[in-house]
Amino acid sequence: MTPDADTIALLRTQYTQCFGCGLDNAAGLRLDGFQVDGNEVSAPFNASSHFAGFEGVLHGGVVATALDEISAWSAMLTEGVFVFTAKLDIRYRRQAEVGADFSLIGRVKERRGKRLSIEARLEANDVVIAESTGLFVVAKRLSDLR
Q1: DSSP string covering 96-131, please?
Q2: Chain-wide mean pLDDT for the chain?
Q3: Distance CA 25, CA 19 (A)
Q4: What pLDDT digit, counting tens, does each position of 87-101 carry?
Q5: Separation between Cα atoms, residue 31 and residue 45, nearest integer Å
Q6: How far apart are CA 136 and CA 119, in angstroms?
Q7: How many domains is the chain partitioned into structurally?
Q8: For residue 13, is it within any domain?
Q9: pLDDT tens, 23-42?
């Protein structure tokens, strides 16, 4: 399912310069193409060579940023809330090659009031490259923007 275009447009107005998803940030990841399937949110990601840590390998901090970003979008698109990252634990399973086509997948595992537990993973060809679990705190509701 494609998220409502009006909702995405509204969210985009809040994140024009975001390093993870800001479409006006030429130096950023510029994540886009978010899809919702049940309780999972996904987005494609192609990491260019300027995100390398060393020759041909995606920097671990960029992987962490991508996982954090899909986690936040999971909260926005399935729970209708903006969140701040309180804690993010990452497990790197394989090296990520720059130039590869990745999929980012996130889902809210549990919500207790303003606290959300969110899981995310970065995959290439259905192989998990890295995964995260995080604690996120609600900053405000999307409905407050309308």
Answers
A1: PBTT-EEEEEEEEEEEETTEEEEEEEEEETTEEEEE
A2: 90
A3: 6
A4: 999 999 999 999 999
A5: 7
A6: 11
A7: 1
A8: no
A9: 888 888 888 899 999 999 99
Q: Which residue has the higher pLDDT, 27 or 128?
A: 128
63 assigned to some structural domain: yes
Q: Which domain holds residue 102?
A: 36-145
Both tokens of 57, joined, read 């390998």
* Long-range interactions of 115-123: CB distance < 8 A, separation 24+: 115/86, 116/75, 116/79, 116/81, 116/83, 118/71, 118/74, 118/75, 119/71, 120/67, 120/68, 120/70, 120/71, 120/74, 121/67, 122/45, 122/63, 122/66, 122/67, 122/96
Q: Residue 109 is encoded by which pair of tokens?
A: 């595992």
21 within some domain: no
